Amino acid sequence: MASTLRIWAILLIFALAAGACVAPLTPAAPADAPETAPTATAAPEEAASDASASMANPASVNCVDKGGTLQIETRPDGGEYGVCVFEDNLQCEEWALMRGECPDGGVKVTGYATDAARFCAITGGEYTVTDESGDQEQGT
Questions:
Q1: Where are the domains of the chain?
Q2: Which of 66, 88, 130, 132 is the most buried (most CB within 10 A)?
């Protein structure tokens, strides 16, 4: 008997929880309400996507605020990343600059023979050229 009562109590709780999840019904317009012509407005989904599309990337804004120019680059795997370019060929990856991993004003990128070496430097990594591998350039 107590077991049956527990089962009914649990079912009642689930039913109340499920009922609370239902969206409220929109009331119908009163019969004597004047009819208005529909207006051209964006659907809520469209309005939300427009708002998010116009939101600026905070790291990109930070780059421009610090006097840099944003340049979008593509990795070999097709992914994209932003590079904040300053005068005298100084650069930082935009998020590394924002996190403080790359100094304000950037790091000098001349002399790196590979894109991977430059990427390491602009993201705040330490890069030392060695000749152990026999490749064009090998970092540690």
A1: 58-122
A2: 66
Across the strands, what pairs with 92?
84
Can you tell me which residue has the tokens 């304000």? 104
| Structure tokens, 15 | 């039913």
Decide which of 113 and 58 is more confident: 58
**Mean pLDDT score, 47-70:** 81
Classified as helix, coil or strand, 85 is strand
Tokens of 136: 């064009």
Q: What gap in Å lies between CA 132 and CA 125, rounded to an integer?
A: 20
Nearest to 58 by CA among 32, 19, 95, 22: 95
